[in-house]
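input
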Amino acid sequence: MVATVAMRTKLCDLLGVDAPVINAPMSEEAGPELAIAVSRAGGLGMLGHGVTDLDQVREHIRAVKAATDRPFGVGLLFPLGDAPPKATREEPVEVAARPIPAFLDHLVGPEGLPATVSNRRQALEVADQRLDIAIEEGVKILTCGLGAPDRVIRRAKAAGVFVIALVGSVRAARDAEARGVDAIIAQGHEAGGHTGRTSTLVLVPKVVASVTVPVIAAGGIADGRAMAAMLLLGAQGVLVGTRFLATPEARTAPSHKQAIVDMRDDDTIISRCFTGKPARVIRNAFIDAWRGHESEILPMPAQMDLVRALVEPAKKQGRLDAANWPTGQGAVNVKRIMPAAEVVNELLAEAREAFARGAAMAR
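output
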């Protein structure tokens, strides 16, 4: 199913897609089902492989290739800069070695804490291996979150991969372009998950004016009006996260999807308590419990290790009170859960209507 509303930019030609709409590679939530649906609809489907187990990386990529011949990409996280990976496999970590803070005890469920949890720190350190698998499987589009190390850019471009770096400042955008990326995602403060301090409305035109590579706007874009605004500001496409979380194809907990749809006034907050880095998430009891304990928050990824024994099971159980639920401020504009293909077409239709209204006003 190709997009029924046509809208092309130069970025579409570079990526080989029909519509300048990209689903954000949102960790485990952006699985093959979402990537397939978005790519089939004419946009660019993205797999979120920031913390995916190595065997599943290959499995997901092959699932998308088997389902569609449309372009798609993979999103990886490189939080360690240019440091080489230190681990080649994941090992269990004894929870007893990292007891959660006592002020979180009231959030532990009746089942208690698991004996072991996966060591996500080591999982983050195998990002290079995830890249190797993506290249081996013929993936041609890569987005880099939390940084785009030189070794990653060189390795990917040598394999003919189109490299996109996510940034939150003009300085980072200029640096990424100087190091050879093919496009830049300018992500504003409104975005869910790890985010910067500058709003999308301010950041996007500044980045567009500062680099020559195509710019993709991200942050707070949940409907076609916002998409139209970003294109008018010079962006060549939009990266959409929260809107795609509320789709049947996203591997999002049902409770999270419903919380997005039910959100009428912004109930998100920037917090470091889940990962050690500022991230926009749905406010809950876990975050409130850290009031007065902000000085105890550890740097990333140590903070993730500290709270994982509580947060990881809570996430699997869909507990809104204790898990990490990255969500953008655009959630207030999400009215219902709908298939990803319909989201793509609705974004395009609403953007075209917004352009038409603007043209009428300019007469």
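quick obs: The longest helix spans residues 340-361.
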